[in-house]
Model the fold of this input.
Amino acid sequence: MLLAIDSSAGTSVAVVDRAYGVLAEASVDDNMRHAEVVGELIEAVLRESGAVVSALAAVAVGVGPGPFTGLRVGMAAARTFALAAGIPLLGVVSHDAIALGAYGGEGWGELLVTTDARRRELYWSRYEGLDSLGLPRRAAGPALARPDEIPSAPRRIDATAVSAASLGLLAERVRASGRAAEPIEPLYLRSPDVTLAVPKRVTS
Done:
């Protein structure tokens, strides 16, 4: 059983179990209130699922792609929870979770996943079905592009949210497979707006 958190598009938190599925999930779509709601959502899903912290095996967190401010809130919350509970923190590409939910029981066919990157751009990833372990096969991405630059695919999902339940179930499959989780590094895919100023040389 694990706790899953994603804040790459809205804020979503869930408690999932490989054997019993989704035990609880709570989400807020507002992209401006990640810091205000993430703690409340964690408390809500733990209460609804009846899970105690000592029973959790890990925390799964969506590493994006996503905007800087929102993404770092969820990752900071997940890191803090995992550290306090003394359990592993597992990174999951948020688009992989969307792909898993989109494929459902039919794990075949090409699929394009996009999410809003703001500034008239989109994050995108292309998939080629699920592998024998039920893990999405990502063929390209995540990447950042203007809408007219994104490759076409027979099936496309323009997602407005990422389900922490799907993210958690994917993390459970990764754990069971023995594969390494994604690095705990945020996928911003865009240079920060603020850069350090270069000190001017003073001459006499």
User: Anything to note?
Assistant: Residues 68-85 form the longest helix (18 residues). The first strand starts at residue 2 and ends at 6. The domain at 2-177 is CATH 3.30.420.40 (Nucleotidyltransferase; domain 5). Helices lie at 34-49, 68-85, 94-103, 164-177.
